[in-house]
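Exercise 7. Given the components listed, write out the predicted structure of the assembled complex. Treat all entries as one system.
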Amino acid sequence: MTYGGIEAGGTKWVCAIGEGPADLHDTVTFPTTTPRETIARAADFFARNGTVAAVGVGSFGPIDVRRSSPTWGRITTTPKAGWAGTDVVAALGLALDVPVAFDTDVNAAALGEQRWGAAVGLVTFCYVTIGTGIGGGGMANGRLMHGLLHPELGHMRIPHDRQRDPFDGVCPYHGDCFEGLASGEAVRQRWGAPGETLTDDAAVWQLEAEYVALGLVNVICTLSPQRIVLGGGVMQQSALLPLVRGEVRRLLAGYIDAPELGDGIDEFIVAPGLGDRAGVLGAIELARRANDA
Ligand code: ZN
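Answer.
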């Protein structure tokens, strides 16, 4: 059985056909334009490359993941122009006539990591991405985290010392939430240059590590994950991950009595095992599950 996966991002879509990391027949990446054009391009890709049993979509959001909701399968309140209210599932289902599974991009990535990557064997863990935006998902007791809607880890509030960092933040809803202070876009606007060009500026990455660690400490204290998989473009800065681990230990101050948060922290906060393919591979796993259901 062959499945289709879509990592539906706000700037690009990645589509793949296959069964897993060792078996990806075809992949394509194209920019996110209008909903009609973008969805048609994905549908064309699957139609041209043979038959898939089901398609999984890991989408940017916020999205409606409540199966009982009349608007299940839609992107909801996104500020991305033209995309609010887009019914991704219905459009793909109509074009391809196969089951379509739908979840957040970060829940899809979490699922991929649990199936093949850095979270194999775990039942409660989080996947957090620090990229252009910040998002997080994961599993609780072996099930992808859903509830009222889905986790929005990027929009939690974290302490912001305006004396030290007077930057107002970039979130259009909250200003200085986690994403507002620590996303790639926040780095770019605060320092006036993209992170990739600031590699040698230690002050940039010290502040970034402190904000990321504040977010992760809240995740650790509220969800008690067995591991945090930390991905996204900002984490490509090689100095950042060790700094984040150190800050998490410092902030927790020894209170939580687990070796994973002490000398074992290098195996507790880890890079994705699937690299930047976690999302699209997780979408393939979503499709498999939809087909098996
Ligand atoms: Zn926000």
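Discussion: The chain has two domains: 3-105+275-283, 118-270. The pocket of zinc ion is lined by residues 155, 171, 173-174, 177, 179-180 (CB under 6 Å).
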